[in-house]
# Entry
Amino acid sequence: MSLTDRVAPPDRATVNVAGLRCRECGATEPVGPVNVCGCCFGPLEIAYDDAAVAATVTRARIEAGPRSMWRYADLLPVLSEDLTLRVDLGTGWTPLRPAPRLAAALGLGELWLKDDTRNPSGSF
Ligand SMILES: [Zn+2]
# Structure
C-alpha cells in the first residue's frame, strides 16, 4: 500500500468550534492566536458548540467517514468548512500486531501491540 492509497479525501465538513475556554477560570475568548487566558494566565482550550455537536455527530456518521483522522472531523478543532484545506497523510488506522513472546514473558495468554510506527510521522 502506498501513501497515496491511504489518503482518503474528507467527504464532509462542519465547524463545531465555539471559541476558546480557560481551563482554570472558565473565561471564554474568541478563537485566535492566543494560548493563555487574559484574566488568569491559565491555559486555553477549544470550546465546542455542544448543541451543534449533539445535533451533528452520530455513530453512523462517524462510521461512514473516511478511514483517516478526518472520520472524527466533527470532533476536531477545525475552523474551516473548506475541505481542500484539510491535509491527510494517512494518519491512523495502524494495525494491531500479536506479541506472543512478550505475552509469554509477562504471563499473559495473549497480547497485541498497536503499531503506531506506521503513522506518517513514525510516532504516535
Ligand atoms: Zn482564566
